[in-house]
Amino acid sequence: VKMSVKAKDILQMDLYGLLGIESTATTKEIKKAYRLKALKCHPDKNPDNPKAAELFHQLSQALEVLTDAAAKAAYDKICAAKKQAEERNRKLDDKRKKIKLDLEARERQAEAQSLDEVQITRTLEEEIARLREEGSRQLEEEQRLIREQIQREKEAQQSGDSGLGRNSRSNVTPKLKLKWKCRKDDETNGGYSRDLLLKLLQKYGDVLNVIVSGKKKGSAVVEFATVRAAEMAVKNESGLSDNLLKLSWLEGQPEEIASQSHQGRFTSTQHSFGADGALTNERDYETLVMMKMRQAAERQRLIEQMQKEDEEDAGF
């Protein structure tokens, strides 16, 4: 009996071992194992490695056979027959030391076994031929998913490379420059500390960092998590009533307002109006009013706390 090259190739392989799964694996587990291994050795990822292409082909053969019920049953039957033959041979090897084998009986057994193997091998060949004619939908679907994933990885890598090559405004966190009046010999730094600045600015959103300049008095930089928070701080925050803060953009200013002036910035005595006398964003009117009230309450609480600390220090 002449076995097809395809069947010979498959019989030489341990399809389960190739995928790293047990013979009891479900179709879902078989597909998952194939996807993990096929992604690593896909020809598109290993253009200069012929062994990777060969392994990818073998994995595809394994998926093709093991996800088809009839082909898998034929393959499992051959594997079981081989295992039984190996077990018989092992037992025979053990018995050879003790008894003399009956040659004729062994020949008859071998002949019967050969006929069985020919039949089940023929069955596997027929199932493989059927798969070739019908086309393996399982294999085509899995390979399509792998191609799509590889394409996504390439696009993500290209996107990452292009992002590194340009100074994208979206990648810059918004930062503001803070200034206030302070004498060089003023140890209190004009009444502003990092903690106080943090409390004043957190009302507008998450603050990533506040850096108070150690060399230049009356100066600091604040980094916000969102542009919206930075915008609100620029418009609304005025700091302590006896030493006002001046806030200006350092980095991450939105393009749509980059050319506009900051004449509409809130202070302790004026509202947030633009150059045309109208509210810069009418939808935010109620939000700004509420924020202004919270700001005033927070400022008053901080002033009272600072006065209390001053009195306690004076008591010492």
From TrEMBL:
A single GO molecular-function term is:
RNA binding
Q: Where is the stretch described as Disordered?
A: 151-172, 258-277
GO CC entries? cytoplasm; spliceosomal complex
Q: Which residues form the RRM domain?
A: 193-252
Q: Which UniProt keyword terms apply here? A: Chaperone, Cytoplasm, Nucleus, RNA-binding
Signal peptide bounds: none
Organism's domain of life?
A: Eukaryota
Q: Where is the composition biased (Polar residues)?
A: 157-172, 258-272
Pfam families according to UniProt: DnaJ (PF00226), RRM_1 (PF00076)
What the protein does comes down to:
May negatively affect PAX8-induced thyroglobulin/TG transcription.
> Mostly located where?
cytoplasm
Subcellular location(s) per record: Cytoplasm; Nucleus
What is the recorded name of this protein? Answer: DnaJ homolog subfamily C member 17
* Record domain J: where: 14-79
Q: What organism does the record attribute this protein to?
A: Tetraodon nigroviridis (Spotted green pufferfish)
Please cite one Gene Ontology biological process associated with this protein.
Answer: spliceosomal complex disassembly
